[in-house]
Amino acid sequence: MGPLRIEGNREWLKEAGPGANQGGSNPRRVVRGMSIQIAYVLIDICCVFLNGAIAFSLRFSRIDFHHILAVETLSSVYQPLNRYGAFLLLYAALIVLFCQSRDLYRTPRTRTADGEFVATVQAVFLATLILTAFIYLSGVSIVSRLVVLISLFLNVFILTMWRYAKRQLVIRRAERGIGARNVVIIGAGRVGQALKRRIEADKLLGYRFKGFLDENHSGDPSLLGKIEDLSRIARVEFLDEVLITIPSARDLVKRIVLEAPQHRLDVKIVPDLYDGLAWNATLGHIGDFPVLDLHWKPIPSLGLLVKRVIDVVASLCALILTAPLLIIAAIWIKSDSPGPVIYSSPRVGKKGRVFRCYKLRTMVANADELKGALRHRNEREGPFFKISADPRITAPGSFLRKYSLDELPQLWNVIKGDMSLVGPRPHPMDDYEQYDLAHLSRLEVKPGITGLWQVTARRDPCFETNMRLDLEYIESWDLMLDVKIMIRTFFTVLKGDGA
Description:
16 helices; 12 strands; disordered N terminus
């Protein structure tokens, strides 16, 4: 459940001075939480550097493990470490970045040990993959693949093990009640009983349940008294928080909120609106007005930032590496038929924004004018157009399409921000005009050069299959899915499955 926090009397807090509010917004607790997260980051960085040193030692030194701390051994390790320092620093930064994107610098009470293990392994593998790609694209030859491989396995092992040990420590502290907050629940009804069971079953929540306050339910053994007994119970039970499960009693809630600061109590309200639909709702604000988001999905802002960085860096590197191919293709296209080398057409992108999409020209110069006359031969179902043995395709165009080389100029679209490396393909305007209302959902994200549909059902003629896969990609997106699609695209291109 997601209790909602209500601040106590602000004027009283000003008069009471530091430490008056001992709840979740206490600056000391915020600073302590940030300090713990920084400590976790530093532990990861130290582990990555230590594992890097071990990997370098295993690769470049003849190590006698009985004398691993000998001066001559350490000195022999120093030279490769000195050369590899920049890459090791980049590796540590990537691991911290991907660990942060998976919220691994906290111990969320809703995440299982298995979930934390999987998230850590994914973060390390993704960081290693990006590092390897960077080394390959940069053309650096001094970095040993064996060093990277050893570092990968060491980091997976060490980073998962220390997090497991940390988790066990947190659990044991919680089970002993260290740092737990004494709490009473106002209302012993259905919601109150459910909240009590959750608190008692999950020690990681950090609460010590003391009892109920309620006007009714006198037969409940956990009942400490009536609601008007709050002042007495707060002193006797050394309470830290009050959880209200009957928010519909507005006058009661106002009275408790005004009374709570006198005993330095935090007050949280558990909403039971709409038959429990708001239990997992997120509290937001519109100006000064608090609102419950009953249907809300968090935007993975850090993940999207990483995706954008990868898009720009990878596209720049790819354009530089493929420049000779583009020059050869341009000469071939120009010598084969009249018309421009680059074909650009308006496409519909994210949120319906129109942009110019670039490709190497693979058809005759007036291909768009001939499209209407060929519509009756369309072999695809729904609002997109494709025919086999298209008479508009030129000789170089057939080869370029086979290996998807015609799409290389779209790397410039990625750099400009119109597109991403991975996403739903952008459709031409005439296809977009035939969309149904449900089809517009695919425009919630940037279009991509490649996507889930291209690597799983490229030959499927049904537009609904295309739509289903695009929506599946949008709903289940993460960086690892992008990496998988890009790897599969690479092998698809090598096989010449384009058309």
